[in-house]
Amino acid sequence: MSRVTDVFSKGKAFIPFITAGDPHLSVTEELIPAMAKAGADLIEIGIPFSDPVAEGIVIQEADARALLAGTTTDKIFESVKRIRMKTSVPLAFMTYLNPIFVYGSERFIKNAAECGIDALIVPDMPFEEKEELKPYCNQYGIDLISLIAPTSKERIKTIAAEAEAFVYCVSSMGVTGVRKEITTNLGDMISLVKETKNIPCAIGFGISTTEQAAEMSRYADGVIVGSAIVKLAARYGADCIEPICSYVREMKAAIS
Amino acid sequence: MSKGRFGQHGGQFVPETLMNAVEELLEAYEKYSHDEAFLSELQTLHETYTGRPSLLYYAEKMTKDLGGAKIYLKREDLNHTGSHKINNALGQVLLAKKMGKTRVIAETGAGQHGVATATAAALMGMECEIYMGEEDTERQALNVFRMELLGAKVHPVTSGTKTLKDAVNETMREWTNRVEDTHYVLGSVMGPHPFPTIVRDFQSIIGKEVRSQILKAEGKLPDLLIACVGGGSNAMGLFYEFLKESSVKMIGCEAAGHGIDTDQHAATISKGTLGIFHGMKSYFCQDEYGQIAPVYSISAGLDYPGIGPEHANLHDSGRAQYVPVTDNEAVEAFEYLSRVEGIIPAIESSHAIAHARKIAPSMGKDEVIVINLSGRGDKDVAAIARYKGVQIYE
């Protein structure tokens, strides 16, 4: 059992997302161990990309801030090494295929594994293209997370059959960002996954409130929240650690 | 290996939300591209609405002036809406309609693809929204107004570099919002499979016409084809018919802006590296960490940091050659063709004219060059005036 799978064996998981280097990597290095203490079960670290087409405006702007602050893939690896000295919370990288491919897919995944990353989420790499990274993930022991969306329909079973660690269920159409309502029939999506394979399902995209998180945790094994946290980072800058940790505590309580 | 590869390039690198839509599109295209009724409907539209076949014009004065190869211009500028873009827009909007979609969206750089899509949508009674970089809405204000006249809603894109690349990002985002009733009319031979193939096939009418027109005029195939490349749709449309003809050389002209030794260009083959972006593996202008570079060209239509995957493969195999052409050279060619032949070319196409001026003199008088004149220059007149420091009021 990988460290990521283990997360879901202790009850419903709360999975916050932050963009590395927003507003600065020194903040990221403090924020991650602090979020772990506040109750985060798995933390998604976004490697900023110039053109994040699956993201809404909030995360796109965070990526731009991080890049402007001089954040690079190599500097993020160095930060993660230092973070690993402070916390053993499972960590996932979330980034686009191009920053990985151009860095060198094998070099990227080897470095990620060596600095203590457990999983990898790549939103622009669908099932059909996963051979780009899968062999290296297998070789270096990184879980490659599969995504399913409301449009996946017949694809759900195919994807679920080969999924590992957990399935990232995209709650609604469109890009990341806070939504008032989530109308997709998540129960059906998740049942389809579970019929195929007994694997944890975490729901992301659009979740921001404790009410939504509580509702989502009725169907899912975990709840992923990105934009709502990144908004706090944008609002508080270098002082974002306490507001984000208090948000993490509330959300974790709401789903427990 | 995944679907839709051209050598090592191509593929389907899109979010899972869009995968069902690209699969559905592929299925529909496989059906309709072999459907006689569909093809005949499109052909009738081209004959009665687009104005096809477009002329192949022997540029006698240019030929004499340059003193080398015989030069022919494929007049895609004479198409309805003023460029080759209508070939693909009509094809895709008709396909979308057959698929039961009620709304089309598109990105546009210079505005030509937006105008063509808005036109096709008006003709076929579809709702239409166009995404255009804010900077481009300013340098191509006339085309924005034209799209609005045609009933389209134009969204200025304010993210990133505010140009074509960001317009593609926004259109892809919008497609993930409303994939059920909406088709994304991609404007060039790029993006996830099956778009590079669909756009190429709809544009290949250019090369097919050139083949029969040049055989009639010269009794032989051309020796050299020249076209400009941003994403590369007009070039691919010209080249495709001749790929198996080993005697026919082909050159794509990419935008070198202020020069490929500066950081102000959009010369993807000359300066780019292999990457995965906008749904495809291909060459991109980017940094060592895979961050996509801001690119520059005087031409909004060539101002794109990537190139279609089939072109990337033609470059790898050496089947086609790709050369950089600067803003300056393009502006000179723009003025040259206007003065010598009485034809004002689009600033995009002027990149191809500029390269022909360089190499035609060194070729034999029995050799034949066909240049794709992908669009007309009306939209660029004010920009050229500004470039030359002349104030005019539109």
Automatic annotation (TrEMBL), chain A:
Any GO MF annotation of the entry: tryptophan synthase activity
The entry's keywords: Amino-acid biosynthesis, Aromatic amino acid biosynthesis, Lyase, Tryptophan biosynthesis
Gene3D superfamilies documented for this protein: Aldolase class I
Xref: PROSITE patterns: TRP_SYNTHASE_ALPHA (PS00167)
Keyword Lyase recorded: yes
Quaternary structure (record): Tetramer of two alpha and two beta chains.
Protein's UniProt name: Tryptophan synthase alpha chain
Organism (species): Lacrimispora xylanolytica
Gene that produces this protein: trpA
UniProtKB/TrEMBL annotation, chain B:
InterPro entries: Trp_synth_b_CS, Trp_synth_beta, Trp_synth_beta/beta-like, TrpB-like_PALP, TrpB-like_PALP_sf
A Pfam family the protein falls into: PALP
Modified residues (N6-(pyridoxal phosphate)lysine): K85
Keyword terms of this UniProt record: Amino-acid biosynthesis, Aromatic amino acid biosynthesis, Lyase, Pyridoxal phosphate, Tryptophan biosynthesis
Principal EC category: lyase
Pathway annotation: Amino-acid biosynthesis; L-tryptophan biosynthesis; L-tryptophan from chorismate: step 5/5
TM region positions: none
MF annotations from Gene Ontology: tryptophan synthase activity
UniProt cofactor(s): pyridoxal 5'-phosphate
EC numbers, comma separated: 4.2.1.20
Reaction(s) catalysed (UniProt annotation): (1S,2R)-1-C-(indol-3-yl)glycerol 3-phosphate + L-serine = D-glyceraldehyde 3-phosphate + L-tryptophan + H2O
Limits of the Tryptophan synthase beta chain-like PALP domain: 52-375
NCBIfam families: trpB
Subunit field text: Tetramer of two alpha and two beta chains.
Function: The beta subunit is responsible for the synthesis of L-tryptophan from indole and L-serine.
Family per similarity comment: Belongs to the TrpB family.
Protein name: Tryptophan synthase beta chain
Source organism (scientific name): Lacrimispora xylanolytica
